[in-house]
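Morning run. Coffee first, then this:
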Amino acid sequence: MEASPALLSVIIPVKDNFQGLKASWHALSHLKSAIEVVVVDGTDQNGQSILNHFALETQPWHHLVVGVQSGVYDAMNRGVHAASGAFVLFCGAGDCVRQEVLAGWLRSRVATTSSPDPRVHAFAVDMGGDREGGVPAVRRPQWTGRLNWQNTMHHQGLLIPRQWLLAEPFEAKYRVLADYHWALKMRRFRKPVTVHRETLTECAGGGVSRQFTKALYLEEWALKRSILPVWMMMAHVVWLPAKWAYKQLLNPAS
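And here it is:
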């Protein structure tokens, strides 16, 4: 008999970060009966997978996608196509899911599968002790107009219906903030979201969106121009340079 699809697929893009992948994997290991893990590996362009260094080949609850990707969001899109779960969660290598929180959500979904109600489930994320200046200890999701000004829906805390991502994949031309762009589109489409109080994921440091360069804010400007009204973009002429200057003041090496 063919196994039924998993309720949740956890997608982990990874490149040259074996230790981070190992940490993320072990954080999920006790949930393997309820989830699948999809590792999208861009480590070696010659096809030598990072997982050859880690005894995962005998695990039936994971998929591996190997090959060159055009950035992290292309890798995430590939992971969505390889996954089978009704929902997906994206983790960077080194991000660690809190098992008890995810297990509680899985139990609640199993109890309500007779009346499916596709929506994003948004949780808080822990930004770690090595976070940059101006970054809060915990980022709590807000599905409000505040999203127009800053990203309040971080992908490490979002359990997303996979069909939404198949219909509206990340736009990989945005190399750093495509998940923010996607969230803005979903709010424009009035997609339903349930906000939870618990913290789902402890994030590893060093992500590209946490390097506060001019390029980051130029990308934010470009993606917002494609979605927000003109009057709001006029305010962003002041808002975005002010955000950049503030982060530079707190992180002079950025």
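The two ends are 54 Å apart (CA to CA). Good start to the day.
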